[in-house]
Specification:
The protein has 407 residues and is of the alpha/beta class. The protein folds into 4 domains: 4-17 and 175-321, Molybdenum Cofactor Biosythetic Enzyme, Chain A; 20-43 and 139-173, Molybdopterin biosynthesis moea protein, domain 2, CATH 3.90.105; 48-135, Molybdopterin biosynthesis moeA protein, domain 3, CATH 2.170.190.11; 331-398, MoeA, C-terminal, domain IV (Beta-clip, Beta Barrel). The chain is built from 7 helices and 27 strands. It has helices spanning 4-12, 156-164, 202-213, 228-236, 258-266, 302-321, 369-374, and strands spanning 20-24, 37-38, 48-49, 53-56, 70-78, 93-96, 108-111, 121-124, 134-135, 146-148, 169-173, 177-183, 187-188, 199-200, 217-224, 244-248, 269-273, 276-277, 281-286, 294-298, 331-335, 339-340, 346-354, 357-360, 377-381, 387-388, 393-398. A 6-stranded mixed β-sheet has the order 15-12-16-20-19-17, sandwiched between helices. A 5-stranded mixed β-sheet has the order 7-4-6-5-8, with no helix packed on it. The protein has a 5-stranded mixed β-barrel with strand order 21-24-23-25-27. A hairpin with a 2-residue loop joins strand 23 (346-354) and strand 24. Residues 277-280, 299, 301, 304, 366 line the site of molybdate ion (MOO).
């Protein structure tokens, strides 16, 4: 049997970073930078005030206190957005609003709360330190600074920084395009009348959701019957012009396991047993061994498919997106219960993690979706362990959509 690490490497060997594209910074959330982002302006772009109040020269207010306030004439207002280059006359004040440019000659700001708020003249009750409430030009970022590095997955804060640095477009990796294929005669679309023996094609929607949650794009969604001609026709021209095809089902030992049958005939895809539970039957390769898209065949059992996606497809999507496939958010936690595990396989136990402690979320059969939906992570019980005891330290892989634990 192939180890989990070996199969993961085999899948990773099939893919590389997607081509670059330029997108407006406002549409770049979740995208991965392909090049560094350099500031086009200083931040702040000009000296400005952090408070609503009065622009002053600190020396004009020497000794000012509650008991000995100092009065200064007010020469006018400076609002945020005022483009006039104001000059502060010695011994005078200008009323100024947060974010407005400081007038020339000003070296401190007095918040309105420390004054009588006057419009013609102002009574000031404090002596400001030089530079008080002044936000200096370039104190945050200098023109030409690299503000974001290639490889950064852009979050809202990154978008804010690039936008403030007046960078209208960023160069990112194209989202990986994934065609999702479910196979099986028993499958019908959600909402259908369910005849005896028929089930909803839940893997289809599950895999689409996983692709999207991973930041990739669903290029197309296809359902194939257990019919060799239909599978052949699909493989000859996969819908959606994808970078990657993922299939679910039809890869085990059944006589209608058509995906395996046809891919074996076409060549280029290797079918293996991987030492993990769930998710033992796996396959990956390039259809026909040629220039077609990479294919990863996932087992049909819903939990097996879901787990296999996390362990094999997610690292590939990360690598395609320009991210480090190893940076998977995994964390260590302590078992809060005891459970058994197959000695010769990695067990991916569906767990709920709370304060660094993990407990199985319920039944662990590869068809049990209730416990899967509740789970926040997979606890990876290593080969060689037959029983997890309370207190055992376990590596855990967060389930997409859940935050990492605090173990
Ligand atoms: N004799 C053997 N039988 C099986 C073996 C084995 O080694 N020898 N392996 C078992 C394991 S482990 C798994 S996992 C499954 C994998 O089977 P397939 O990938 O061929 O999947 P199917 O047979 O098509 O379906 C399995 C199961 O999952 C349901 N299914 C399939 N597709 C969907 C879908 N899109 N949405 C919801 N549910 C789906 C399907 O109805 C079956 O119940 O094989 C074991 N058998
Ligand atoms: O190992 Mo299969 O992939 O769960 O039932």
């Amino acid at each position: 049997m192939r180890s989990v690490a070996e199969h993961r490497d085999a899948v990773l060997a099939l893919v590389g970073p997607t081509p670059r594209e330029t997108v407006p910074v406002g549409s770049a959330l979740g995208r991965v930078l392909a090049t560094d982002v350099t500031a086009v302006v200083d931040l702040p772009g000009f000296d400005n005030t952090a408070m609503d109040g009065y622009a002053v020269r600190h020396a004009d207010l020497a000794g000012a206190t509650e008991d000995a306030p100092v009065r200064l004439p007010v020469d006018g207002d400076i609002a945020a957005g005022d483009t006039t280059r104001h000059v502060l006359a010695p011994g005078h004040a200008l009323r100024i609003m947060t974010g407005a440019p400081l007038p020339e000659g000003c070296d401190a700001v007095v918040p309105v709360e420390h004054t009588d708020g006057g419009a013609e003249s102002v009574l000031v009750r404090v002596e400001p330190a030089p530079g008080r409430y002044v936000r200096a030009r370039g104190e945050d970022v200098r023109t030409g600074d690299v503000v974001l590095r290639a490889g950064t997955a852009l979050g809202p804060g990154h978008v804010a920084l690039a936008a403030a640095a007046n960078v209208p477009e960023v160069t990112v990796h194209r989202r990986p395009r994934v065609t999702v294929v479910s196979t099986g005669d028993e499958l019908v679309p959600v909402g259908s009348m369910l005849e005896h023996g028929r089930i909803v094609d839940s893997n289809h929607l599950m895999l689409r959701a996983l692709v999207e949650a991973a930041g990739a794009e669903v290029a197309a969604g296809v359902h194939l019957r257990d019919d060799a001609d239909a599978v052949r026709a699909f493989l000859a021209a996969p819908d959606g012009d994808p970078d990657l095809v993922i299939t679910s089902g039809g890869v085990s030992m059944g006589v209608y396991d058509t995906v395996k049958e046809v891919l074996t005939e076409v060549g280029g895809v290797e079918f293996v047993k991987v030492a993990m539970r769930p998710g033992m039957p796996q396959g990956c390769g390039v259809v026909g061994g040629g220039s077609g898209p990479a294919v990863v065949t996932l087992p049909g059992n819903p939990v097996s498919s879901f787990a296999s996606f996390h362990v094999f497809v997610l690292p590939a999507l990360r690598a395609m997106s320009g991210l480090d496939p190893d940076d998977d958010g995994s964390f260590e936690a302590e078992a809060g219960a005891s459970w058994s595990s197959p000695r010769e396989k990695v067990e991916l136990t569906r767990v709920v993690e709370e304060d660094g402690v993990v407990r199985p979320s319920g039944g662990q059969g590869s068809h049990v979706l209730g416990a899967l939906a509740e789970a926040t992570a997979f606890a990876l019980v290593p080969v060689g362990v037959e029983r997890v005891e309370p207190g055992t330290r376990l590596r855990c892989l967060p389930i997409l959509g859940h935050h990492r634990g605090r173990g």
